């Protein structure tokens, strides 16, 4: 069975980031985390999370008074899907152009460069 992927909006991705780190959280906890970096109203966060539940992006445990949410989509699957779309639309399907752009504009740490080298070695073996 192939399920259709639902692309999260930018605001939904911010909520998913919180849930991926925390595992489970109430609307209040998510809102407090988002408020550290942006000006967001509690009711906006609540409404977004309700919409995300309807879309299937989050799951809600309604068995207790304070509803507890968790991500229904994995971080890795979401990253793969969004990156694949970006490579196709922005870089004409060229992952090489994506990597060159990323490394050209972003100073990679020594540790990141070691990881990149390991990945290249593994890809060459395939």
Would you kindly provide a written description of the structure presented here, covering whatever features stand out?
63% of the residues lie in helices and 9% in strands. It is mainly alpha-helical. A 3-stranded antiparallel β-sheet has the order 1-3-2. Helix 2 crosses helix 3 (42-55).
Sum this structure up briefly:
The protein has six helices and three strands; from the N terminus they run H-E-H-H-E-E-H-H-H. With 126 residues, it is mostly helical.
Please supply descriptive tags for the structure shown above.
126 residues; 3-stranded antiparallel beta sheet; mainly alpha
Shape: elongated
Strand content: 5-15%
Outline the low-pLDDT stretches: none
Write down the Rg: 18 Å
Span of the ends, CA to CA: 29 Å
Would you count the extended β strands for me? 3
Average residue pLDDT = 90
The helix/strand order is: HEHHEEHHH
Structural class: mainly alpha
**Biggest sheet character:** 3 strands, antiparallel
The helix tally amounts to 6
